Amino acid sequence: MLRSFRVSNYKSILTDQELHLGPTLPDSAFDPLTVAALYGANASGKSNLLDALRWAADKVSDSPVQQLLTGDSSLRTPFKLSPEGLAAPTVAEFGFAIAGVDYSYGFALDDERFIEEWLYAYPNRRKRILVEREQETIRIGQSVENHREIAKLVKQVRQDRSVFTVLRDLDVPQLDAVRSWFDGLVLSGPLGTVFWGRADLEATIEDDPLLVELARKADLGIRDIEIAERIREPREIDLREAAALESRIPDLRKRAESQFDKRKRERDINRIQERASQLRAPRVERQLMFLHGDSLVPLTLGEQSSGTIAFLLQMAQLAKLLNRGGVMVADEIESSIHPRLLARIIELFHDPETNPKGAQLIFSTHDTSLLGTSLGEPVLRRDEVWFVEKNTEGASELSPLSDFKPRKGENQERRYLGGAYGAVPDVDTGSLLDIFKRYGREAPAGEAPSTT
């Protein structure tokens, strides 16, 4: 489980900011927490904090995804509003627990190279070095099996590549659990934007009846979900292709060649016959069918609304995550999700029965109903709420709701919207109205306002 993530000098984040998932309330059901929510005004840096987590995980996996998304081949995107950010390194660190043992992995880098890198384990709360790097000097801890041989292998690692990405490719038992932990991160934008094919969705629905039950309870009009099978006879074009393939067989058999070539020709003939048989055979097609209304009218996936499809994709991701454990990071989680449904999703992570592996959900949102009592008891605990706000230098700063020491029973939604916790836009509604009115009056009748 993720215990903490800290980062400095990344996009709008200048000084060290840490998202800490250790509970601060005495009645904590999980250690660490399974939910963390980020609130803040537009452009406050919420997305940048989550993006930093994705970016840091991308460095661990040595994946080109971030480079493809940004079109930037440099190692980082530092804070650019002051000389301090351009000159200082960018630092990121994960704190996490695996089977009761704490770990920390982190690095510091500039535009061209890794300056530092470390991976520590803390069995019985005692620090054990697994990997340490400082400039070109790389140390493999003595507790790592075959550490001398591994040290020789990583000695020449490129300066723009992390040591851990090299170790991922080696069979190092002490690092297998760490590699698996990073593989368990699910990093997405708005929940449900990870691309799923129909086959993936069908397999998830077949394997997990929970998904069907959730679709029934979500008031989508769906009474049940089935996977229908139908036999499709071969098309005329398939039959013609099969005949054309088989017409080549007599010519192949007439050729008198060496014994080696004869065996090769026989293999070619067998492949042609196998392909022709496939083209002539009826095909079994599988299709998701959604039964709607009291009369159970079957509709295909393509006939569902975009909201229903988004819900199914979201639930498919969540069902897998809750079954296996791991961490999901989602930006703007409320996109296409009704507040009542979002509240129920968060409850899945809170309940040990539905979340036995301790899966975690970290998200940004503008949905303040999760803070208040309009849905009953507040959906989010006080130690699960964080605020992101920019200071006068334009740098994002992170602070937990618990720092404000809210009283039990306090209407946190009302106080947040009223500005008591900060992290809200400083917008004068009256001035906006004046601007729009003045802008409209300046435009001649029937003519678009000038933008110059």
From TrEMBL:
Keywords: ATP-binding, Nucleotide-binding
Pfam families in alphabetical order: AAA_21
Chain segments annotated as coiled-coil in the UniProt record: none
Domain of life: Bacteria
Domain ATPase AAA-type core positions: 35-371
Any GO molecular function: ATP hydrolysis activity
Full protein name: ATP-binding protein
